[in-house]
Design brief:
The chain is α/β, with parallel strands linked by helices and 766 residues long. The protein folds into five domains: 5-114, Rossmann fold (3-Layer(aba) Sandwich), CATH 3.40.50.2300; 143-213 and 545-602, Four Helix Bundle (Hemerythrin (Met), subunit A) (Up-down Bundle), CATH 1.20.120; 227-379, Heat Shock Protein 90; 394-520, Rossmann fold, CATH 3.40.50.2300; 604-761, Heat Shock Protein 90. Helix 2 packs parallel to helix 3 and helix 20 runs antiparallel to helix 22 (726-739). The longest helix has 59 residues, at 116-174.
Amino acid sequence: MSTREVIILIVEDDVDMLNGIADALEVYPSAYKLSVLKASNGQAALQLMAERDVDLIVSDIMMPEMDGYEFLRYVRQNAAWTHIPFIFLTARGKESDVRQGRLSDADLYLTKPFVMGELAELIQTQLDRSVERQKRRTLTLESLKKNMMQILNHEFRTPLTYVTAYYDMLDRYLNTVEASQVNRNYMEYLHGIQTGCVRLTNLVGALIQIVELRSGAMGQQFALRRSRIDDLNGLVQMVIEGQRPFAEEQNVAVLFEPAVGAPSFWGDADALQAAFAALLNNAIKFTGPVTGRERLVQVKVFSQGHEVGVAFSDNGLGIPDAMHERIFDLFEQYNRTVMEQQGAGMGLTLARELVQLHHGRILVQSEENKGSIFTVLLPIYETSADRLPANGRVPATLLLVEDEENLLYGLADLLLLFEGRYKLHILTATNGREGLDLLQEHLPDLIISDIMMPQMDGHQFLKTVRENPQWVHIPFIFLTAKGERRDEYEGRRLGVEEYIVKPYEPDDVLKLVEKRLDKHFESQRLVQADFEQLKRGILNLVTREMMQPLTAVSVHTLKLAQGLDQVDSPEQLAASLSAIHDGSERLNALIKDLITLAELQTGEATVSYTWEAQPINELGMVLYESSQTYRHQYAPETEVTYTFPPETPTIFGNSRMLSNCLERLLRFSIAQAEERPATATLSLSPQDDEVQLSITAVSPLQAPAFAQFQQVLEYDDINLIDAPDYVASLYIVKQYVALHHGRLTGQSSLESGSCFTISLPIHTPT
């Protein structure tokens, strides 16, 4: 296993000290391969950081041009640098200076003179913690990606299978009997098609609504559509009736308790119905079978103070505390391996965002294996222009470990009374062993522990916490009577974030707790920011084009169900079946494109390319197979020719992806032509150190289609919600070509028709 390379930035205006620290670190034994950058002040350090990635910073405070505190402020303001460990190494050793430094955003505050070996070990500890956090961040993001891809694959492909499979069965069935002899057995197949259509319609509709909410479009609609709602009971009753068939299918009883004299308020009735329907559907879905317990969901409307509420209660599986906020995140699900059919993880996201649109909130109360209550609280507006902002404190859980009972509960009371930006929930233990038992059930946001305790002391407790991948990220504070310099060094070396000596200043403890919670949640936000960017990319892949084939399949299925008894000829049957077939085929292609683009966004396609890529010696066969596949699947009447030299260069790549690119470009060049060309040609030609795969057609492209192609080449951002369906296909081609380190070009003119070229590097074995 290779040694990890890290870069340490030393910022010090004393040249001898700067060079001395740099030289010592480069020769000091380390688990890392260290490289050192040097700067004489904060300004010079920022210039270096703009050019080079840095893994850790050691900085003086008193420096010309830009001192250490200002330098730290600039570092923490840059989102790309917030995770970098920052150590102050300074001669400012007065108690007030040390207090200021420890309460700053730096990770460590060390004073001169120092022992070089101790500095090197503390740097290594900080690097270890940083690597652990980065590793966990990467693993978390990869897990989220895989979960999201699993959901997309399952939730889109399953209803699509209903549509296509039941169509095939219906087609075979109707072709085995005379039209006059058709009986009602076909209804099972039609119901299967309709079930798939409804599920896909809801899925696509929810995704589009989330896009509109996050883009601000829904907010604009809300401002125009909100009106006075006088009958909240009736609105909720409509939602219950709409969900009753699903409840009956799940053998769940739904009880409704309306409010007496529920007040009027302003809002968008359709948006609220969608939010309530998502919450009720979720309650029904998770009211799992429990021995000796009736499967029951209760819906209650009530008013309290300046708010009106709707509570959805179930007696199902329940949700652990750690998941109460996360379940509202897009594509987030709890215990999917147990609840395979729970959906795509969008219902609660949509519900919360629609409620927030009304300046309302959703509260969650839940206990595992007992059930959950989701409560919607909406402000009562006297007029449509009223606004009621809601600001709350961030919930955080602390684990306190202390063997002295008075100190334990005194600290707990101090933290509970603290009116800071965090609403603290306190867990307590009297030694490290009890602390570990609590960690098996709860995941705190911060641990504060004594060192000298019976059964398991603080050092062993910390060591065990740091060895567990599920706990390694939790910030840890020692609060102890062991106040010697060597004791603090030992604690820092073991990896505690803060070391507080008893007796302590209460205000300092509270500020250090708040500082470490800030850093902890900032680290979580970095992971969430990466995933949010990924989710925005996935949302932008959704296209309204999906609704057209969905509607076509649904309409013709209903038409067939209503009119099959009066069918007079096989031709009428064939017409309805053909419409269903065409819609499902187009829908199938759109879903495949969505999944492929999602795989490209998440990196799954890169993994597939890496595993499957190999030298391709017979590139001409890729052209041949692409032409045959296109004619067979899309246009048997189109003559597709191909030409390539007897000996073709070798390239390195994925033949499946390249063939897919050629098929897509062929389909685009013919379907979007000014005049439907009767022929198209695929050709291969070596050019210096690359080979060009070209598709030419005699007819030029329609002007809007060629403009879309040029836009795809120019921009990397994908927003397909209002784009023609072929744009998704062009993005796939562009990304597949990029995986092969190639180029995609195209031209279109009245004189020469259209031509699209994929240029790929010739493979040179090494």
